[in-house]
Amino acid sequence: MMKLYTKTGDKGKTALIGGRVDKDNLRVQAYGAIDELNSFIGKAVSELDRELFKDILVDLEAIQHELFDAGGDLANVMKERKYTLTEQPIEVLETRIDALSEEAPPLKRFILPGGAPAAATLHIARTVARRAEREMVTLMKETEDVPTIVQKYLNRLSDYLFAVARVVNFRLNVADVEYIRSGDVFK
């Protein structure tokens, strides 16, 4: 039986593909946030009805694989490497955002995160995606040796997660709660 613990990280270091760094390294922070994001998406998947949200579940499974690709790309510091994440998933996200935005009621004001449990989880995932994106930007300022496509993907993914959270509420007949001090910001 393979043991889950190796003890190699007991002194605050972790392995990358092609090297070792401190566990608080910016690269590790960025792919750690992506891992956290993937976990919240998994939680949302567990909260969605398999029939009512069949299309969204297909999306979310693909996204979970893409997030693993993104984390692997960030963890790879070898001199010769090929990245896995491409522009294609970004294009898919844009198409899905457009379709989901048509399904949900028009948005006039900012909304509060929440609603149905799965929608609330998707809003949490959206905020974690934004944090992961911020951590990517910090990493990109430190080194040019990162796949910038990951930052672009995270940016689009957070928009997708917002759109899909609204659709989940809509399909479940749960109204979005508008932020009461918001003016009409979406015209």
Account of the 3D structure:
- Belongs to the Cob(I)alamin adenosyltransferase family.
- Pathway: Cofactor biosynthesis; adenosylcobalamin biosynthesis; adenosylcobalamin from cob(II)yrinate a,c-diamide: step 2/7.
- Keywords: ATP-binding, Cobalamin biosynthesis, Nucleotide-binding, Transferase.
- Its EC number is 2.5.1.17.
- This is Corrinoid adenosyltransferase.
- By secondary structure, this protein is mainly alpha-helical.
- The protein has one domain (19-76, 88-171): Up-down Bundle (Hypothetical Protein Ta1238, Chain: A), CATH 1.20.1200.
- The chain is built from five helices and two strands.
- Strands 1-2 form a two-stranded antiparallel ribbon.
- A hairpin with a 2-residue loop joins strand 1 and strand 2 (19-22).
- The radius of gyration is 18 Å and the shape is elongated.
- The protein starts with 12 loop residues before the first strand and ends in a 16-residue tail after the last helix.
- The relative contact order is 0.17.
- The mean pLDDT is 94.
Domain unit count: 1
Q: Which homologous superfamily in CATH is the superfamily? A: Cobalamin adenosyltransferase-like
pLDDT under 50 segments (min length 5)? none
Main β-sheet, spatial strand arrangement: 1-2
Beta content: under 5%
User: What is the name of the CATH class?
Assistant: Mainly Alpha
Q: What is the H-and-E element order?
A: EEHHHHH
**Any idea of the CATH topology?**
Hypothetical Protein Ta1238, Chain: A
Q: What radius of gyration results from the CA coordinates? A: 18 Å
Q: How many β strands by DSSP?
A: 2
**CATH structural architecture:** Up-down Bundle
Biggest beta sheet attributes: 2 strands, antiparallel
Count of helices? 5
In percent, how helical is the residue content? Answer: 55-70%
What gap, in angstroms, lies between the N and C termini?
59 Å
Mean pLDDT: 94
Quaternary state, please? single chain
> How would the global form be characterised?
elongated
Structural class: mainly alpha
Pathway: Cofactor biosynthesis; adenosylcobalamin biosynthesis; adenosylcobalamin from cob(II)yrinate a,c-diamide: step 2/7
Enzyme class: transferase
EC number: 2.5.1.17
Protein name: Corrinoid adenosyltransferase
